[in-house]
Structure prediction request, 354 residues.
Amino acid sequence: MSLLDRPRPALAPPTRSVARALVHLGAAAAWRITNPSSRDPFLPARPRPLTRLYYTAPDGWHAPMLVVPPAPGGAGEPVLLLHALGSAPDVFRIGDTPTLASRLAEHGFTVFLVAHRGDRGAVAPDGAAGFSFDDLVEKDLPAAAARAAAHAGFARVHLVGYGLGGQLALAAAARRSVAIGAIASLCAPVRFQRPATGFRRMSLVAAMLPPTWEVPAGSLAPLLSPWIGDPTGTNGRTLRGALQWGAGPLPAPLVQQVMRWLADGSLVDRYGTLDYREALVDARGDLLVVIAPEDTIAPPEAVRAAADQWGGRATELVLPAGYGHADALFSANADVDVFQPVAAWLAERRRLAW
Prediction:
């Protein structure tokens, strides 16, 4: 048995709570030491507990969705929020200022923060092996969408995804695996350029990872939070909160598939036989692509390629100069520049879920 395959001892719930509390206290103390003159709170308020709604994929995987109810009087059309690689569902509702989840709820939507088989909250069936991005597209997302639509009482769902979450939404539209009303894709590339330095070496390392292994980013990220200051234009407090409560694991199969996308230059399936980007020509419905002009992870041309290929009606929202990848969620102006426009665009298309 290799070190990577060796099972990790599970901590009992009280032990986990104590460990989290110690990490939090240590991080807070480090923050005060490194920022003695700052009057800014170290972290925003922790997100309050929400109702959990569970869904089961066709192959037996079981995962939760957190439910944010609509504002009073709202019709409650379902919106699924899909998080990025290395994040957790809570990332969309962290902050003392309005969040993407709260803005959508204010516009009368029922918001579902979706976990999938790559997340900590998922439960695998007996004998489950590895999985891929395609399993999320073909199994998890359709099951989650059907559960959310039935819960809210509508025929279709709207999808809003950031990073990998946007790629999931676009791939589902390409495969027509989900009954979709409209899609908003935030900083989600569908075309790629191979990194010039060390790519082959990184690919070999990724290929050797066991299919059930993951980088425990959700446990490591809180240790980085004390070193996040308040850079110009960024809400440092919200970003620190995201590292504390909104980080998730990096499953080896998803990392391996991302490396394949970089090698092939496009958003392809695990076998390289289906190009999701090319298949977008058969997609229907309305699409909004959100583009950050200074994004080095999802460059504008890589994000715009989805709109160029889209078979339905596509709209672009180009963010102000200076916006990078993380700024779409964590900029000090994200509510005005991103959350409100996305919620308003979707509100104009709420009938597409009927």
